[in-house]
Amino acid sequence: MGIFDMFTEEIAIDLGTANTLIIHNNKIVIDQPSIVAIDRLTGKAIAVGTQAKLMQGKTHENIKVVRPLKDGVIADFHASEHMIKEFIKQISEIKGKIVKPALRIVICIPSGITEVERRAVRDSAQKVNAKEVILIYEPMAAAIGAGIDVESPEGNMIVDIGGGTTEIAVIALGGIVVDKSLKLAGDVFTNDISYFIRSQHNLDIGERTAERIKIEIGSALEELDVPLDDISVQGKDLITGKPKEIMVNYKEIFRALDKSIMRIEDAILETLSITPPELATDIYKTGIFLAGGGALLNGLADRIHRKTGLPVFVAEDPLRAVVRGTGIALKNNNKFRFLMK
Ligand code: ADP
Ligand code: MG
User: Fold this and answer.
1) 70 C-alpha to center of ligand 2: Å?
2) What's the CA-to-centroid distance between 288 and ligand 1, angstroms?
């Protein structure tokens, strides 16, 4: 270890549309929503992550709460830069250092990203005292995190359903052979639920309530092997304007989500159809790996299995698969260097 390396810290970042996770010294040290609260008058960011999420839906006109990466690209440069900076500052082991360490950062980016957007991610990361910024494609990181041997000649399919985007990719020999990015994922599911509750129950619910319904009783199937109990949902009656509580059944939520899930299924089938035959044959054996928060939707893996006839696996702890993979790539820098940009 050289004297310079003593002052170098290595971190792996999954800059997601919904959540940002950071690994430092093999540990997940940041796992927070990708959200920034901004003071409209001064233009300054006043809170990031969990703290900013608490403000969502409750701000007055002088504060706006933004998700800088909402559609999988950096829509708000200033906010995303601030967010990365703040999260790194919050890492206690780095915070405590007397000499501000230089950073070597591996950060994952969506596969469909343009050259300009890629530069924007790199620039944002570079502004935090990074001496080196390495980029890795998200489906590759997800695959490594899901435990797939990405260097094997065998084809593997990974489907990462996040907040803003669903990324579908076929990986073989350390490369992405085909990929497809869809701007339809968890956020759309949440919207589907709000719309459904509004039109079927005349109830106006907030985004956080809709997300809670999705997480608690969201279903990709009309009949689940283990049925879910009804839950109570509070909102505002659209007719009287008064607060009201209703009971909601998982089968209703299935109906709310059905169309959007169908679009993800179609995208998977399309990706399979443009996959070279040898690799497509492999996937009949190796199956499809699901990652990202959307993989947790009840019955989804089963539904995709029925639709495609392929084995479908949910990566262990799917919300953390990408950061885990990014961390593994960082740690095995030499082995995986060829995968990184
Ligand atoms: P990103 O990588 O885009 O930041 P994540 O992989 O962190 O996204 O996934 C976030 C999405 O997963 C959100 O839309 C969230 O509502 C959804 N999600 C989290 N847990 C569940 C669950 N148990 N069931 C369904 N969706 C979930
Ligand atoms: Mg993600």
Assistant:
1) 11
2) 18
